[in-house]
Write a structure and sequence with these properties.
Strand 1 and strand 2 form a beta hairpin. The protein is mostly beta strands and 84 residues long.
Length: 84
């Protein structure tokens, strides 16, 4: 399954680089099935950054993913990630 990186999870004054918003599906019912799965982003240099899907984000099929060791770089925005 693939997902698209939409944005960092952010507040009014801060941006949390370890938490990302992903579009997994078109409906929240389909996105609910992805919670708990692993997300892998592959950089152009070949490195992989792994995270887990934690919760739904809104009602349009978006989910929150938390990357534990380090966050995703800005070049990951708009790219595809693998959901395993």
């Amino acid at each position: 399954m693939e997902a698209t990186v939409m944005n960092f999870r952010r507040g009014r004054h801060t941006q949390n680089t370890k938490q990302m918003i992903l579009q997994v599906a078109e409906t929240p019912e389909e996105a609910q099935k992805a919670i708990g799965k692993t997300v892998v982003w592959a950089s152009p240099a070949g490195k992989e950054i792994k995270g887990t899907i934690s919760a739904l984000h809104g009602r349009k099929g978006h989910v929150r993913a938390i990357f534990a060791e380090k966050g995703l770089p800005g070049q990951a925005l708009g790219q595809k990630v693998n959901v395993e």
